[in-house]
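Q: Sequence in, structure out?
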Amino acid sequence: MAERETEEHDVIYELDEKGQRVVVKSLESTSRAYLRFTNKTSRPVDVWWRDFHGARRHYVRLDSGTYFDINSFITHPWEFTDVATKESYVINNKTIYRPPTNIGGMMYRTNWNITIAVRSLRHTVLLTLAVKIDDPNAVNALGLPRVLAEELQNLITLFHRPKTPPQRD
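A: Exactly. Output:
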């Protein structure tokens, strides 16, 4: 599983097959992979590619139920995040997606479904409430513990602010 770092360009690390910590980044561009990413969530999703230095590059924003075709390579990592909350979404329960080696070089496109990861009940309830409540100040009337109220107010703010796509380099 990838570990988040707070360095420039949001570089992240993972453990390789030898147990060494390495930057998540694109490697060589030799074995092609023709991919289709389908957003199976109920939310808009940002699609990101990790470049050859490990920097995260925005590719496209997908509305719920839509797809994006990309000609990529099997060593190129992809990520998917909720537009409002920045929550990581998954393909095959992995937050970092790389095409499997067995599709490298195939001359047809393979479909990969973007889904949500398993969430805690607490997080699921807070997300559900945040979608339904427009005003963060309305949370005060619910009588929630301070920690939950603050978390819910932050989510409401995220859900109800204008959503502009990230700029491509």
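The radius of gyration is 18 Å.
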